[in-house]
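Residues pack. Consider this:
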Amino acid sequence: MRSAWAKTICRLLVVLMAWTPYQLAQAAMIGTDQVATSSSSAERGALLSFINRTDVASQLQALGLDPASAKDRVAAMTDNEAQSLAGRINSMPAGADSGGVVLLIVVIAVIWWVWRR
């Protein structure tokens, strides 16, 4: 009985091994241009999403620059320029405007002055 089961299992394993493909994954070399294109397009996408933000678009309009022309300028940048600008934007701390801190100090000082009067 044991040899019948062993033969059946062995035959099943042989069939499964022949049926299963040997190469499930394929490794190949990729060129530098493919890697550089994907990273530069990601950086340009990050810049374009930054320009599409409403606060950034309103600030650009306040400075006299149309957001559509800013998008055209991002498209005209070289890969190094896009990488540099994206790196500077990503390295800036959130809420880096120190005007908010000064405004908060002035408001507290006015409230204190009115309270003491």
